[in-house]
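We close this part of the discussion by returning to an individual protein. Part of our work consisted of pairing the sequence of a single chain with a tokenised description of its backbone. No coordinates are needed to read the tokens, only the vocabulary itself. The amino acid sequence and the backbone structure tokens for this protein are reproduced below:
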Amino acid sequence: MKLFSLSKYERIKEKKNIQLLIQDGSSVFSSKNSLKAIYLIQDSNEPGVKIAVGISRKAGKAVWRNKLKRIIRDAYRLNKNPLVKSAQQKNKQVLILFTSYSYNEQNNKKLHFNEIAEEVKSLLNKIEKRILGKSKGNQQSIR
């Protein structure tokens, strides 16, 4: 597998996995509370990370939502390596659903990659700490 790719095997496609993630997953908010990630860490004989990106229709028009999803996927793709390595070391499968929390088209007409990439990095760092067991509490929300 290529280092900075995002293959179809790294995406959540099954409806049952998304429902399981929403029901049993824990939430993490980015450093500026603009993005939210719902994640689920499971023991697995196929360790790795799978992601999905979902943006509500209330956030803005389709063109704006699609651009936000594209930027989030790209930021994840470029910053995923430490998270994937720690999941493989601990033999865990991590499912992540990225959503916008306070991003919307009215307040953020222009989307900037660097700004969103920092938010995605902060989310990935928080999830990685959970995988490694460095945080306090049992699968509770972190702010």
Summary: The mean pLDDT is 87. The radius of gyration is 14 Å. The first strand starts at residue 26 and ends at 29. Residues 39 and 96 are 4 Å apart (CA to CA).
